[in-house]
Design a protein that fits this description.
This protein has 300 residues and is an alpha/beta fold. It has 2 domains: 2-25 and 142-289, Rossmann fold (3-Layer(aba) Sandwich), CATH 3.40.50.1100; 30-138, Rossmann fold (3-Layer(aba) Sandwich). The protein is 39% helix and 17% strand. The chain has a 6-stranded mixed β-sheet with strand order 1-2-10-7-8-9. Helix 2 packs parallel to helix 3 and helix 6 packs across helix 8 (170-178). The longest helix is centred in the N-terminal third of the chain and has 15 residues, at 30-44. The model has no long low-confidence stretch (mean pLDDT 96). The structure holds pyridoxal-5'-phosphate (PLP). Pyridoxal-5'-phosphate binds at residues 29-31, 59-60, 137, 139, 165-171, 243, 246-247, 274-276. Residues 29-31, 59-60, 137, 139, 165-171, 243, 246-247, 274-276 line the site of pyridoxal-5'-phosphate. Pfam families: PALP. Keywords: Pyridoxal phosphate.
Length: 300
């Protein structure tokens, strides 16, 4: 579904949002796209277990747990942070994933950094038996193939600019591959660091894209009062809920770019709502603990 964001923009600019967040109640947005062909491949190879990695409030962890429940796989989540083991009930993401049948293995931050080493993988094989490994954030060639299905042919011919939030770069790589040469793709990085363009270059051949890292708000998962207030007022004006980790920062960036005149006259911009709304509860929990303003909307 596509919605127009009806505000008075300068230079006859039009802004639309594609609601990928509404694709599935649990396997949200781009994670649905990224898992689709991985699930098919796991089935084809005869696997019965999916194993993946993620942080405390990971959209990807919950999506894999949901996909396992729906498509008949056992799921194992390797979770960053040993301290979380006794706090699952305080963490809405992990509690929900557990409810969907996911089994956890908690590791220290140091061990987590080495999660893709062959010694750690063989340890996991010994502990859990055979599994289909889905990488952290879900990005691999099959995930990108799934993300190439986000844009319809009408969207490819109508829109001049497509924007999305970037974490590992898989989603924007799929969008780039399926775009037309006339379109410009803009990725808004949700994390600090200039390495993302390198990663994306491994997956794409086109050059009609750029990454902005001016709107990460201090880094991955970091927010400030300005962002929270922006998200609350965006929701009041449009009834569109955005998540504070990815889509919220991207939409903040797009509106800032429009205001600064970075788009040509008559630009038709499509932003991709990649989902992530499950993370609002966890974020509000953390904000409340710090006596900060919270997000006034929640999925439930
Ligand atoms: C995971 C995620 C992203 C980042 O996608 P990548 O393919 O890792 O770049 C963007 N938005 C939301 C809501 C996500 O959950």
């Amino acid at each position: 579904m596509i919605q127009e964001i009806k505000q008075q923009f300068p230079n006859n600019i039009q802004l639309f949002i594609k609601r990928e967040d509404l694709l599935h109640p649990i396997i949200s947005g781009n994670k649905f796209r990224k898992l689709k062909y991985n699930i098919q491949e796991a089935k084809r190879l005869g696997h019965t277990t999916l194993l993946t990695f993620g942080g405390a409030f990971s959209n990807h962890i919950l999506a894999v747990a949901g996909a396992g429940a729906e498509f008949g796989f056992k799921t194992i989540g390797i979770i960053r942070g040993e301290e979380l083991e006794n706090k699952i009930h305080e963490n809405p993401t992990l509690a929900k994933a557990q409810e969907l049948g996911m089994q956890f293995h908690f590791v220290s931050r140091t061990a987590y950094r080495d999660k893709e080493s062959s010694s750690f993988i063989s340890f996991l094989c010994e502990k859990f038996g055979n599994f289909y490994l889905v990488p952290e954030g879900g990005t691999n060639d099959l995930a990108i193939k799934g993300c190439e299905e986000i844009l319809t042919s009408e969207e490819k011919s109508y829109f001049t600019h497509i924007a999305c939030a970037v974490g590992t770069g898989g989603t924007i790589s799929g969008l780039i591959n399926s775009s037309t040469e006339e379109q410009q793709l803009i990725g808004f990085s949700s994390l600090k660091g200039a390495f993302l363009s390198e990663v994306i270059r491994n997956f794409v051949v086109k050059t009609n894209w750029s990454i902005s890292d001016a709107y990460h708000f201090g880094g991955y998962g970091k927010v400030n009062d300005e962002l929270i207030q922006f998200l609350n007022s965006f929701y009041t004006q449009t009834s569109i809920p955005l998540d504070p980790v990815y889509t919220g920062k991207m939409v903040f960036g797009i509106l800032d770019w429009i205001e600064k005149g970075y788009f040509p006259p008559n630009a038709k911009i499509l932003i991709i709502h990649t989902g992530g709304l499950q993370g609002i509860k966890g974020m509000n929990f953390a904000l409340k603990n710090k006596n900060k303003e919270i997000l006034q909307y929640d999925k439930d």
